[in-house]
Specification:
Blueprint: H1 8-14, H2 17-24, H3 33-54, H4 56-61, H5 64-85, H6 94-99, H7 107-132, H8 138-161, H9 176-191, H10 201-209, H11 216-239, H12 245-253, H13 264-288, H14 295-318, H15 333-356
Organism: Delphinapterus leucas (Beluga whale)
Membrane topology: Multi-pass membrane protein
Main location: membrane
Length: 376
């Protein structure tokens, strides 16, 4: 997969978040919740007008260009929030975390800001650059889509169900577009034509004739998916207060962060159990039976989703903003990081395998039925 060039114009525009955030942090007129809402909406509106006037042809070619350009700006804002909350730089966005979204100051909030300000930011620049050069970016968009949706599925319910539900301000309703954009963007991305495959029908037919034992990589991935499925189910039962001794030991000695009243870890484990676990079962089926052409696309979506989820979960489990009693004990760090890193790495290896050699997943071309000689 070719990596498209980054969009320089979008990058320059997004970096305008630095001086703007610094200036707004010193304006007392927006030091109350409604002021933050109106100022945020005004800035996003002016930003869209600026992008439209500078890149009208790109937006006409692909409206997602405007989405990626605006979101690249908010990614820089999120990175400023994370760096400010961790004390690596002056707090440019203190007014927003105080009067807008105070739950961004939690450990989970800080790490989703880090992810948005780094991984998502690079994806936005790459996808905007691909649109400017009229190149394909479907695979990058699928990865972003999974990552973006996962962050929303955990963060928004966690804000409502956790201990910060009393801190919800009017700025919370600015997240409504974040619920609508992935639906619209997802439809556009999935409707884009796939890149032409380099596999010929003969190559696909030959690959699909191979049994599982002749495909050791697929066999290893199936074994991984089985263990990952049990791990996903187990952690889901843990947050549901399963009375098994193993669940009790795990939540107190290995991942006490799952008990944190902020609710983000509990929501994360439930999302994994109800969405990731069924996907693992379907992926096992697709690795055994040929012709499941849907798997390569969905592996990218779930690789992005699990990558974002594990980054936020692992970081928040050891962050100083997490109360000491809920952090991972030092004697459990090795097992915690090994298990969670493998859990994050596996879906990426699966996605790479599907992109690297997609012949097994191609739909068989219609043709005349095969004639078998009668054996006597």
């Amino acid at each position: 997969m070719d990596i498209p060039p980054l969009a320089g114009k979008v990058a320059v525009l997004s970096l305008g978040a630095l001086p703007l955030s610094y200036a707004l942090n010193h304006v007392s007129a927006i030091s109350y919740p409604l002021g933050v809402v109106w100022m945020s909406a005004l800035i996003l509106g002016l930003l869209f007008l600026a992008i439209y006037s500078l890149s009208r042809s790109d937006i006409y070619y692909d409206p997602l260009f405007a989405v990626f350009a605006v979101f690249s700006f908010t990614s820089v804002v999120d990175l400023l929030i994370a760096l400010g909350e961790d004390g690596y730089m002056g707090s440019f966005m203190a007014f927003y975390t105080k009067e807008g979204e105070p739950y961004l100051r939690t450990a989970h909030g800080v790490f989703i800001c880090y992810w948005d300000g780094t991984v998502h930011y690079l994806l936005y620049l790459a996808m905007a650059g691909a649109i400017r050069k009229r190149k394909r970016y479907r695979n990058l968009a699928l990865y972003w889509l999974g990552s973006f949706v996962m962050s929303i599925l955990v963060f928004l319910p966690g804000n409502i169900l956790g201990k910060y539900n009393s801190e919800i301000r009017p700025s919370f309703f600015l997240t409504i577009p974040y619920l609508l954009v992935p639906c619209w963007a997802g439809l556009r991305v999935f409707n884009q034509t796939q890149a032409p495959s380099c596999c010929t029908p003969n190559m696909a037919e030959e690959e699909q004739r191979k049994g599982l034992l002749r495909r050791p990589v697929d066999l290893a991935l199936i074994i991984y998916l089985i263990f990952a499925s049990f791990f996903t189910l187990f952690r889901g039962l843990v947050v549901l207060d399963c009375p098994m001794d193993a669940c009790f030991v795990y939540i107190y000695q290995y991942e006490p962060y799952l008990r944190d009243p902020v609710a983000y870890p509990k929501v994360q484990m439930l999302v994994n159990m109800f969405y990731v676990l069924p996907f693992y079962g379907l992926a096992i089926y697709a690795l055994i039976f040929p012709g499941c052409s849907w798997l390569p696309d969905w592996t990218l979506v779930f690789a992005g989703a699990i990558g974002q989820a594990q980054f936020s979960h692992m970081g928040a489990s050891i962050h100083l903003r997490t109360p000491f009693t809920y952090r991972v004990p030092e004697d459990a760090w090795a097992s915690f990081f090994v298990c969670n890193l493998l859990y994050a790495l596996g879906p990426h290896l699966l996605a790479y395998r599907c992109l690297w050699s997609p012949a097994f997943f191609l739909r068989p071309l219609p043709g005349p039925p095969a004639h078998h000689e009668k054996q006597h």
